[in-house]
Specification:
This protein is mostly beta strands. Helices cover 0% and strands 47% of the residues. It has no helices and eleven strands. The protein has strands at 3-6, 9-12, 17-23, 31-38, 45-50, 56-58, 66-67, 76-81, 90-98, 110-111, 115-120. The strands form two sheets. Strands 2, 4, 5, 6, 9, 10 and 11 form a seven-stranded mixed beta sheet that branches. A four-stranded antiparallel beta sheet has the order 1-3-8-7, with no helix packed on it. Strand 5 and strand 6 (56-58) form a beta hairpin. It is globular. The termini are far apart. The mean pLDDT is 94.
């Protein structure tokens, strides 16, 4: 499975940004898919995950600000990010896996090259 992220960039705090991830293959009945962030020297953090039963879980740090709209038929996963904060600055990775949904990016079978989001005050 190949995953390609797009939509990152440098923005001011308080604005919105939408990331996209196109997956070469995805099954909404058997695959987990989601978004991770990683900053230098820190463990990856799972910020939003869509489970095979369509339940979506968000990290506390982004709850109420980030959402994943429904996955499009062409296997495109979006991450809508509102009211961005300086602390959201990170590399964002899209990942997918059949079955379970590990907490750390390294536990997933497939992830993209990542895309950088920089939020300045």
């Amino acid at each position: 499975v190949q995953l390609v992220e797009s939509g990152g960039g440098s923005v001011q705090s308080g604005v919105s940004l939408r990331l996209s991830c196109v997956a070469s293959a995805y099954s909404n009945t058997s695959d987990c898919i989601g978004w991770f962030i990683q900053t230098p020297g820190k463990e990856s953090e799972r910020v939003a995950t869509v489970y095979p039963d369509d339940e979506t879980i968000y990290a506390e740090s982004v709850k109420g600000r980030f959402t994943i709209p429904s996955i499009k038929a062409n296997h495109t996963l979006f991450l809508q990010m509102n009211n961005l904060k300086v602390d959201d600055t990170a590399m964002f990775y899209c990942a997918s896996q059949r079955g379970n949904c590990p907490l750390r990016l390294s536990g997933w079978d497939y992830w993209g090259k990542g895309i950088l989001v920089i939020v300045s005050s």
